[in-house]
Amino acid sequence: MEKEKEQERKKKKKKPWMRRRHRAVRDIAYAALYGYTKRRYGIEIDRFAGQGERAYLILMNHQTAFDQFFVGMTFKGPVYYVASEDLFSNGWISSLLRWLVAPIPIKKQTSDISAVLNCVKVAKEGGTIAIAPEGNRTYSGRTGYMNPAIAALAKLIKLPIAFLRIEGGYGVHPRWSDKVRKGHMRCYVSRVMEPEEFKGLSKQELLEVIERELYVDEGVADAEFDSDARAEYLERAMYVCPWCGLTEFESRGEYIECKKCRRRIEYGKDKRLKGQGFDFPFEFVTGWYAYQEDFVRRLELSDWLDAPMYRDRVSLWEVIVYKRKRRLRRECELRLYGDRLEIDELRLPFSEITGISVLGRNKLNVYHGGGLWQFKGGKRFNALKYVNMYYHSKNKGRGEDNGEFLGL
Q1: Using an 8 Å Cβ cutoff, are 97 and 87 in contact?
Q2: How far is CA 217 from the centre of its chain?
Q3: Predicted TM-score of the model (pTM)
Q4: How many other C-beta atoms can be found within 10 angstroms of the C-beta atom of residue 49?
Q5: Between vectors from CA 121 to CA 17 and to CA 45, what angle results, nearest 5°?
Q6: Is the model's pLDDT at 336 over the cut of 80?
Q7: What is the CATH number of domain 303-397?
Q8: Which distant-in-sequence residues (6+ apart) come within 8 Å of 26 by Cβ?
Q9: Are 226 and 171 in contact (CB under 8 A)?
Q10: Cβ neighbour number for residue 374 with a 10 Å cutoff
Q11: What residue ranges of the chain are covered by domains with CATH 2.30.29.30?
Q12: Burial class (CB in 10 A: 0-12, 13-18, 19+), 12
């Protein structure tokens, strides 16, 4: 029996990641989606003319839910995307995706050695790999924090790096919105960096190059993006009012309103913010979002040990990673304190939680005790505040009172 198991393990190890069908699937998807994507997103795709037959490590900034399709339209041949474990935990749909395109799974907010080994395997087989070093779509329009491990991975797999920039995506489809706006985007390779170029760089030096090449700031009035629901669901990203501090917002159409002071802000076609009957201190969401993060870094969490900062009605799911999801409670109350989460009668101290992340627009993943719990709220649920408070608490616990990293 043991001998048979060993033979099976060896067989699995030798199984190649790359398959001929992946190229066929890519070509079919390209033919089917290219026209639709260009019309829906107004995107200008600059095909990578210098690709040749080589494999690349594609590093990209992350703006929309369709970014992986933009990459596939820029490069010829199959591309193997590093994707969150949530994509692989949806039963038969995940199995079908594995068969069709074989994405590389990674566990968010954890050190995932298996993801690194799989990237090495694909690179050795001659495959092109695509990674968004931010690990998250931008909420503000500005390229966010990048995990320093990306530089170590690039040096390890030794593929030429193709820096792929996506511009205008925040204007066309902000992460917090359900609506795609009429506007213009562009996707192109801005630079190729050969292994010989970064071989002599330290990991920190290479990280700085990556951050510089992929930095995009959409907090400018550079174009118009038209929609009759321009501000809708901005409350998924914003929860700090310049006058009220911690609060909740509610949006309708072109406006978002603080539920405490009732100040109403218009989100313009050019992405500008304008107070209705008052001067709003931030011209764009980028400035407001930066203020919110600074506010959190200064927040005294000890003031919120007895009474919760927030209460939300959510459904609770158990994620059996890389397999399926199982709903545990149709509805429960999720409460955020300065040192813990509470779900009805269940108490989860931050000290026992190993990571918290936001998926998509507003799903919340909590890694606890070797398990993974997912919370899904209503349309206006703000999952981001839970992530920010958790990492602020972690920073303070390490003596980093003004720690920069807040989970995104």
Answers
A1: yes
A2: 16
A3: 0.91
A4: 7
A5: 70
A6: yes
A7: 2.30.29.30
A8: 72, 77, 78, 79, 101
A9: no
A10: 20
A11: 303-397
A12: exposed
158: buried, middle or exposed (CB in 10 Å: 19+, 13-18, 0-12)? middle
Kind of pairing, strands 240-241 and 185-193? Answer: unpaired
- What's at 62, amino acid-wise? H
Paired tokens of 105: 């799974």
Residue type at 271? K
Per-residue model confidence as pLDDT tens digits over 82-126: 988 777 888 888 888 889 888 998 876 566 788 899 999 999 999
Helical pair 149-157 and 203-214, crossing angle rounded to 10 deg: 100
Complete edge-to-edge strand list for the sheet that includes strand 264-267: 249-252, 255-258, 264-267, 273-275
Contact 83, 94 (CB under 8 A): no
